[in-house]
Amino acid sequence: MRNHRDRIFAYGCWSAIINLFTVSVAVFWLCGATYAADPVRIVAIGDSLTAGYGLPPAQDFPTQLQAALQEKGLNVTVENAGVSGDTTAGGLERIDWAVGDGADFIVLELGANDALRGIAPAVTRANLDQILKKIAEKNIPVFLTGMRAPPNMGKDYAAEFDRIFPELAAKYQTGYYPFFLQDVAAIPELNQSDYIHPNAEGVKIIVDNMLPYVIKFINE
Length: 220
Prior knowledge:
Layout: H1 2-37, E1 40-46, H2 48-51, H3 61-71, E2 76-82, H4 88-99, E3 105-109, H5 112-116, H6 121-137, E4 142-145, H7 155-162, H8 164-172, E5 175-177, H9 200-219
Parallel strand pairs: 1-2, 1-3, 3-4, 4-5
Helix pairs in contact: 3-9, 4-6, 6-8
């Protein structure tokens, strides 16, 4: 009789252990599935071109980029960390809190205001170098968008300014898009009344042009 009770007790213990193991595996699987479903977090850091100055809601660059990436089947969110009027010096000052509690990728768009204000290219280069260095220390991949100096700054200024971006992209091995305003700059119908900031259609062209570069960057 005692042996029978012992067998029942042992069977009950093993059943409890098996059930506990099964529940643990299920919880682990569900947690893993939830984690895998979390969207990739991209933070777009920049000036008014990123912030969406003068644009209707949901027509800014980060929002349009997120929608375009999602249409391609990528599970991503693109957060807007643009500040209108920001220079590379301002970007350097706020880079830590702009990134926040971490990001999977960063899209970096800065430099336009430096050129408009005639800031020495050596200063712009030094600021961007420090920004990229800080991000590299956080082990976050960066997609750098290039900028070009306006023609009225002169050939010497433009030559020194324009080569900042490809050279830093090579130095830090970032993703790279040569000119943020490609096919949009100086085209009246694609810009707002100030002829500096793209309108919604201009932003769409920017996103369409840049999209293959961003997708390749994320996949690699």
